[in-house]
């Protein structure tokens, strides 16, 4: 896409995962339904092409939300960008319905996302990493605006783009336990398929996966499938996997209404959301995956050929690396004392993610952003960071708002509605402040 150097965009989107893809669609649909000047937008993504957690696109892994919680339907049920529209265009609608499953595979949903992206591709530039955002103060007929520095990830060249607003949608950040380093034998789940693909499966005779969340369980199952001769160990911090609560009452925490209840609630309200419903998403695993892993383990026990091992209440204390040798020092919480060493050919840390934090990207701009007592950004209901009066430009967050907007912050459940709210906010604020 050709972004224009002299243009001041109404909004520049940083990152082009599902959140900003959904925003691009909301902008497209706003434009089609208004006679006002269009919202001028540009998006930058550091990947070479669209990709949604590609390294975890494991066969048979399913979505954790209904297909109806797609990029647009909850905001606009008539959208041409809906999952149903994608199925129709792919000539698969009838078969999808016959399959009677609310939860498509992640691979099918990825195909849907790619199909939707093709419809708004003119708004996004790939191989483009945003490295800095600066403020340019109003002067001599130039209005206050932001300068977004974009690095071409292929050539390394940097260029600048101007905007009145940005939306930071850079996603979750892979988290390794303290002191653990990644390398060609020690991986985080976010790089799993790429790293696994670089190995000769015959060299993988002992593999281990750390963690008890969905990523850990799916990778354990995958390695057990793909390496029929290997010993596969699951190193669980818990006594066993816990089930993800996706029953109907609990699932209401992902509704659009729940954002208001959370945002306008008291500290006690917000605490209650986390205390009672954290198990809808964090450190939990889908019921069918848990049962499948247990079934496999039991079958092996019956056959007297155990190669799937569950080391419960166990944590990795140290990883000793030398060439292709990897020795893992394990600490058992069963007695709080015993240590065990295990040699592995590959070790996967499926230890989760940290939430989006825009601080480093915002640089000096961050001094205009207000923070709460715990040092977190204050955020308005329309996802705009609360800033001091000198800054008229807007910083919108898609992600990193768990403390203000609740559990859906880093998930897909509410992105269609959230995108619409951000478009409305930009249009309303533009109408209120624009001098043109
Ligand atoms: P996402 O991380 O998808 O995208 C951010 C993008 O920004 C990336 O493409 C990245 O390259 C880019 N980027 C980062 N920094 C940049 C920079 N400085 N410049 C330019 N580009 C930059 N949720 C759910 O509701 N249902 C589900 O089924 C799942 N499934 C799921 C599977 C797996 C394996 C994981 C790890 C997570 C999920 N999730 C989920 C949660 C997940 O956060 C969610 O699905 C989306 O990825 C959120 O979309 P975003 O666009 O916000 O972030
Ligand atoms: P997660 O749910 O945060 O789980 C991380 C696991 O690692 C937890 O069991 C955690 O234990 C453990 N852990 C963290 N630090 C550790 C340490 N130092 N030592 C040992 N264990 C440690 O992360 P995730 O499984 O990657 O899931 C992240 C998100 O992606 C979730 O929203 C999930 O639903 C989603 N996801 C979806 C799919 C899918 O759609 N099919 C697939 C994978 C992931 P504690 O509980 O003790 O912290």
UniProtKB/TrEMBL annotation:
The protein's annotated pathway: Siderophore biosynthesis
Similarity comment: Belongs to the lysine N(6)-hydroxylase/L-ornithine N(5)-oxygenase family.
Entry's EC annotation: 1.14.13.59
Annotated keywords: FAD, Flavoprotein, Monooxygenase, NADP, Oxidoreductase
Enzyme class, UniProt record, top EC level: oxidoreductase
InterPro entries (alphabetical): FAD/NAD-bd_sf, Lys/Orn_oxygenase
A Pfam family it matches: Lys_Orn_oxgnase
Names of required cofactors: FAD
Catalytic reactions on record: L-lysine + NADPH + O2 = N(6)-hydroxy-L-lysine + NADP(+) + H2O
Record-given protein name: L-lysine N6-monooxygenase MbtG
SUPFAM superfamilies documented for this protein: FAD/NAD(P)-binding domain
PANTHER family: L-ORNITHINE N(5)-MONOOXYGENASE (PTHR42802:SF1), MONOOXYGENASE (PTHR42802)
Organism for this UniProt entry: Streptomyces lasiicapitis
